[in-house]
Amino acid sequence: MPIRPLSDTVINQIAAGEVIERPASVVKELVENALDAGAGRVEVTIANGGLSLIRVTDDGAGISSDELPLAVARHCTSKLADDINAIHSLGFRGEALPSIGSVGRLLIRSRTAVAENGAEIAVSGGKLSPVRPAGANQGTLVEVRDLFFATPARLKFMKGERAEASAVSDVVKRLAIASPAVRFTLSSPDRSRIDYAAAAADEEGVSRRIAQVVGKEFQENSLLLDAEREGIRLSGRVSIPSFTRANALQQYAYVNGRPIRDKLIAGAVRGAYMDVLSRDRHAVTVLFLTLDPALVDVNVHPAKADVRFRDPGLVRGLIVGAIRQALAQSGVRAATTGAAGMMSAFRPGPVSFEHPRHGIYHAAPGSQLPRGGFDWRSSSQRPLDRGFAEEGQTAFATVAPSADARADGETPPVEMLTMPLGAARAQLHENYIVAQTEDSIVIVDQHAAHERLVYEALKNALHARPMAAQMLLLPEIVDLPEDDCDRLATHAETLKRFGLGVERFGPGAIAVRETPAILGEIDPAKLLRDLADEIADNDTAEALKGRIDRIAATMACHGSVRSGRRLRAEEMNALLRQMEATPGSGTCNHGRPTYIELSLSDIERLFGRR
C-alpha cells in the first residue's frame, strides 16, 4: 500500500482515541478551557452519564467570531508561547475541540466583552458548519450531544450511566479543589446536583473548598503540610492514620494547579503511611506541588493525566518526609469518626417488656408506650421494692470486679486530667483501659497500644546504627539484567547499612556476601530482584527496610502486653504517658485504632441532656 496523507477527519478521530476516552474526558477538557479563560463561574450539565448531552457554560473571556474556526482546528491554541517548556495553563495542545467534534455533535457559542453580539459554530462528525451570529452572554457555552455517534465501536466500551456520571463528578471535584475562587455546579436529569460556592483564593479559601469536596470530617481529621526543598514546595492536607478509606479514590494530587494521577506520588503516600496503615486501607490526601514548569514535563500524555519530574527522587523524598514529619508532630490523635461509631452503637434500639394483661409488647425506637390500663407497679420490670439503698444491693457484692483501678478510688491529680489521654480510672475485661480527661472519656485497647510502643522502640533500636550482618560462607552469585545490576551497585552503601553486602561480579551479575541477620534464612536472588524493581520504580531501597520493619512488627506483636492481663493503676497511667510521647500511637501496627475518645457533650446527648 503506498504512503499517503490521512484525511483531517481520520486524524481527528485518531486524536480523539487518545484524548477522549469517555464523557469525563470531555468534561475535563472543556472545564480546563473555561478555567484558562478566567471564568469565575462554571456550570456543567450532563444527561445519560454525558453520552447524550454535555453542556459547559462559563463567564470567561469568550472567543471572538473570527477565531471560532481556529478553535476547532487542530494544533491551534492561545495558551502556548514559543517556549514549550514554559507551560502555565491547563490545556495547551489544541486537540480537544476538534477531537470532540470528530466523534460527536459539537456546538460552541461565545461572546467577548467587547463584542455586541455573540457567534456560534457547529461540528458534527468532523463536518464543520460556517460561523453564524447568535445571542449569548459574555463567556462561552460548549454543548456536546451524541458522543461517539461517529465511532459507534467506542460506545461498546462505555460503562453504565451511573458509572459515567460518577466519573464526571470526580473530574469536577478534582478541578474544583484547585480553583477555590470559581463557583462550580454540576447537574443532571436525576436531580442530583453539586454546587460549590466560590471562596477566596487564599489558604482559608482552599481549606473551605477542600471541606466542600472531601467533607468536613476530613478537615477535622487531617494535618496541614507545608514543606519546601530545592525550589519545590509541598502544601495541602493529609489524614491522620485512624481516618482512612478502603480505596485510594480520595487521594488528590496537583502539580502547579493541574490535577494529576501519578504513580510516583501515590507510591510516596503509600510509603509515608507504611508503618501506620494496613495494606487494605488508604489515607485521604490533598497535595499541592508547586515548582518551576521547566522541572516537570506535563506533555508526556495526550490527556495530560501523567507528568514526569526531572528529579523524581527529590519529589518522592519531599512527600514522604513531609508526611512523616507531620504525623510525628501531630501527637496522639484519634479520629472523630470513632466517637461517631461509638455513639451509634449506644443508641437505644427496640425495647420489649411483658405485661400481665397486655402480653409481650415490642416498641420501635421513638414509638409511644401503650397507655390504657398500664400500671408500672404490676410490671415484671418494676424497680425492687426495697429501692436502691445499700442493703438492697447486697446481691452485687459477690461479683468480682474486672478493674484494678476503680472510679470510687482516689481522685486523680488535676494535672493528669489535663493530659491528652487523661488518668486511668478502670480496666474492663482485662483488656480495655478507661481513662478520664477534663471533658471526655478515653477507652484504650491495651494490647494494640503497647504493640505500637514496642514496635517503635524496636525500629529505633534497629535503625539507630548499622544493621547486624550475617556473612555468607560462600558468596551468592545472582544473575540480573545489566540495568538492575547498575541500580543495585548505585545503592550499595544504603543496602550495607541494612546489613546487605553486595558488589558487582562481572557483567550481568551481583555477588551477595552478607545478609541482614534479623531476616534469618532468605532467598538472596528473590530479595535482589525485589530491590531492583523497587529502585526502578521509586529510586529507593525502601523494600529492604520494609521487610526488616515487618520482622520488628511481628516481634512487637508477640512481645507486647497480652489481652487478659490485669494492670495496676500505675501501669495503666504509664502506658497512657508513653502513648502521648510516641508518634503514631493512635493506631497499632496493623492500622487499627488504639483508643477511642468520647467527649462529655456526646455523652450528654446520649442521655438527652443536650
List the SSEs and their pairings:
Layout lengths: L7 H12 L3 H14 L4 E7 L5 E6 L9 H4 L24 H8 L1 E7 L6 E7 L2 E2 L3 E3 L4 E7 L6 H4 L5 H18 L4 E5 L5 E4 L6 H12 L1 H5 L1 E8 L2 E8 L4 E2 L5 E5 L2 E3 L2 H10 L9 E2 L1 E6 L5 E2 L10 E2 L2 H18 L6 H11 L4 E5 L3 E5 L50 H4 L5 E6 L3 E5 L3 E6 H18 L5 E11 L2 H9 L1 H6 L3 E4 L4 E8 L7 H15 L3 H18 L9 H13 L13 E5 H7 L4
Parallel strand pairs: 1-8, 13-16
Antiparallel strand pairs: 1-2, 2-7, 3-4, 3-7, 4-5, 4-6, 8-9, 10-11, 11-16, 12-15, 13-14, 17-18, 19-20, 21-22, 22-23, 23-27, 24-26, 25-26
Helix pairs in contact: 1-4, 2-6, 6-7, 9-10, 13-17, 13-18, 14-16
Rg measurement, Å = 32 Å
| First and last CA, distance | 82 Å
Tally of DSSP β-strands: 27
- Apparent shape: globular
Number of domains: 3
The overall pLDDT, averaged over residues, is 82
- Going by CATH, the architecture of the largest domain would be 2-Layer Sandwich
Residue share in helices? Answer: 25-40%
Regions with little confidence, pLDDT below 50 for 5+ residues: 363-369, 386-405
- Tell me the quaternary state: single chain
Q: How many helices does DSSP assign?
A: 19
CATH class group of the largest domain: Alpha Beta
Strand content: 15-25%
